[in-house]
Amino acid sequence: MDPTPSVSSPHLFSLAGQNVLITGATRGIGQACALALAQAGASICVVHRHLSPDAEPNMDTVNAIRALGATAQVVYCDLGNMDSVRELFPKALELMGGNIHILVNCAGIQRRSPSVDFPEKDWDDVLDVNLKSVWLLSQAAGQHMVPLRRGKIINFCSLLTFQGGLTVPAYAAAKGALGQLTKALSNEWSQHNVQVNGICPGYIATDMNERLLADPTRFRQISERIPAGRWGSPEDFAGPVVFLASSASQYVCGELLVVDGGWMGR
Prior knowledge:
With 266 residues, the protein is α/β, with parallel strands linked by helices. The chain has helices at 9-12, 28-39, 60-67, 82-95, 120-148, 169-189, 210-213, 216-225, 238-245; strands at 19-22, 43-48, 72-76, 102-105, 151-156, 194-201, 256-259. It contains 9 helices and 7 strands; from the N terminus they run αβαβαβαβαβαβαααβ. α2 crosses α9, α4 packs parallel to α5 (120-148) and α5 (120-148) runs parallel beside α6.
């Protein structure tokens, strides 16, 4: 591993000249992360889902990045289709001038059902998007980054990387495995100056949790257990993602950074 650059503290967090490929950035946590990385100086390649010919893509994130004066590109991919996923990194690499310095795997889907009734298709869909696509993208990123001896991979894990949850067996299985994958890749690639880390969100007020937010009993139960006294917001991830993407975290390897308002401390 190369030593941490000897620069002043404010510049440790600069991402000037860095190219980022990020999934899940069209809304929620991913959108907040993409904007934060752009504000730190990075150029961003945003992954959009394939759309039908008559559908209008959601360009809110891209437009907001460009409004900051930063570069934003768009690449299309269905993260549930592994052939499409295998084509994603080469396409993004071409769009970004042959260099990607940072990969952020933030996309994810959720399916809820009692385990005795959990559909096999839902299991496969969740494992494909939340785990297999991350593995394929990370492997492609490693093939690019390891020979160059530089790079950052940031995987979005979950509290369910550590806990089992309720009625979400596929999500818990995928996020648990993603935590172990993050550590496994870090063990191999840290020596090549590629840092692989994870961020584990707590209960965040996004559309993925809309069913919990709409359930008065579950909302109260969860809220009472959060020491910070509130659910998180996407903006709570701006600092953590910039830290893990920057030189400030050069010696942080295989870490699962929990951002949960203190939930795990309980």
